[in-house]
Every structure is written in C-alpha cells, then in structure tokens.
Design brief:
Elements (H helix, E strand, L loop, with lengths): L14 H8 L4 E4 L7 E5 L5 H21 L1 H9 L3 H13 L8 H12 L5
Antiparallel strand pairs: 1-2
Length: 119
C-alpha cells in the first residue's frame, strides 16, 4: 500500500487535542507542546504514554477518513465549473432534456462513474 500523502492543512494532534479527547472535562494549562509543561488543574494527570497513544489514534483516524474521501477530491477536480454546469442545464432545459439524457446529467455521471464512491 502506498504511503498516504497528507495535505498541509492536516490538523496536528497536539497534546491538548489528545488530552481533551481522553477527558473532555479535564482542566489543565500547557505551555508549548511538551508533557513536562502541563499543569493539571482539575482532573489528571494523564500518563504521557496514554497521551501519545491518543495522538496516534487521532492521526490514524484522520488518515483513514482522508483516504476514504479520495473519490470526492478527484471528482471535485473533474466536474465542470458551476458556470459551465448552469449553461449546460440551460441548454438541456431548452432542449427538453432535464433527465438522464441531457448533457449535464451525462457529464456528471461520467465523473461519478470514473471515481465511484468508496473506490
């Protein structure tokens, strides 16, 4: 399996995200992103190994979700622009083809067939 390339906008699962995923009610202060700077106010402490495991779990889930939606990103790149789709719909309307025989429907179906959901 190819290594998944994650886009720059990936949410980084810092210590805070992991702590809050483990215990949403916990209160703490963290200077920077290191375990040694955490001051537990209410609840805690949470073990460092547990935080690291949660960070990995969150990242793994994100990568899995990202991979599952690859068909959607591929479709987005190939669909005609909204302006072109509206023009196509207008011509289909005038031609009485606002059904699966219209050019708009055929162009959208071609992209959906090329990149099936879950494929």
């Amino acid at each position: 399996m190819a290594k998944l390339q994650i886009p720059p906008a990936v949410p980084y699962y810092d210590i805070g995200a992991a702590i809050e995923a483990i215990d949403p009610e916990i209160e703490y202060v963290c200077q920077g992103d290191t375990y040694s700077t955490i001051e537990w106010i209410k609840g805690g402490p949470i073990e460092y190994a547990d935080i690291k495991a949660k960070q990995l779990e969150l990242l793994t889930k994100y990568e899995s979700d990202y991979a599952k939606l690859s068909y959607s990103r591929q479709r987005d790149r190939e669909y005609p622009t909204i302006a072109d789709q509206l023009d196509s719909l207008y011509h289909d309307l005038v031609a009485g083809k606002l059904d699966a025989t219209g050019e708009w429907a055929k162009s959208i179906k071609a992209v959906k067939d090329k990149y099936p959901k879950g494929g």
